[in-house]
Design a protein that fits this description.
Elements lengths: L15 E10 L5 E6 L8 E2 L1 E4 L8 H13 L8 E12 L3 E10 L13 E6 L11 H14 L3 E7 L7 E8 L10
Parallel strand pairs: 1-6, 5-8
Antiparallel strand pairs: 1-2, 1-4, 2-3, 2-7, 5-6, 8-9
């Protein structure tokens, strides 16, 4: 009897990356965004974030704390962060799969960090984001999740293969007891 063939061959596999995004606001409720100077998302505005250091066993919370400090100088702790979403993006930009952990930072930052190798920072009113160059998946998925669920926890997957429609599917939703202050 022939051996069962795997669904994917080694030649068809693309890398899987694990990263965090941290949504930081100032005391006026404006979003801190980074105009990215490097891929992915070069030339687009996005929240602070970066890849987990998997070789050291870094957790998503540790990564969020590290990336927030490295990119902004804003020192936060686990207590300052709320993990509100986990997203599995299949074939983002056709180059890799991403597992993203999204955090809402409860500790405001009132001064935009200086420009650095990652790009330029600025605060933007939430309503103004629709007019900015944003990554497609951020515009269609991340900001809608943030608006609807930043006080909750939601897990979803999104098929991001080029040429196809972006169809996010919620896999689990746990509602918070109370909506976050200032929710839209």
């Amino acid at each position: 009897m022939p051996a069962a063939r795997p669904f994917f061959s080694a030649a068809s596999m693309i890398p899987h990356k694990i990263a965090v995004l941290v949504f930081i606001r100032n005391s006026r409720g404006e979003q801190l965004l980074l105009l990215r100077a490097r891929p992915p998302n070069r030339g687009a505005w996005s929240p602070v974030g970066g890849k987990l250091e998997t070789a050291s066993g870094e957790s998503p919370f540790e990564c969020a704390i590290r990336e927030t400090f490295e990119e902004t100088g804003h020192a936060v702790t686990t207590a300052d962060l709320h993990l509100f979403a986990m997203i599995s993006e299949k074939s983002y930009e056709g180059s890799g799969h991403w597992l993203l952990f999204l955090f809402d930072c409860k500790k405001p930052l009132d001064k935009a960090p200086p420009e650095g190798p990652e790009g330029r920072f600025a605060f933007h009113a939430r309503e103004a984001l629709d007019k900015l160059p944003l990554p497609e998946s951020d515009r269609d998925v991340l900001w809608r999740l943030y608006d609807a669920h930043r006080g909750d926890f939601v897990a979803l997957r999104a098929d991001c293969r080029p040429g196809g429609p972006l169809r996010p599917e919620i896999e689990q939703l746990t509602r918070a007891a109370e909506p976050p202050r200032g929710a839209r």
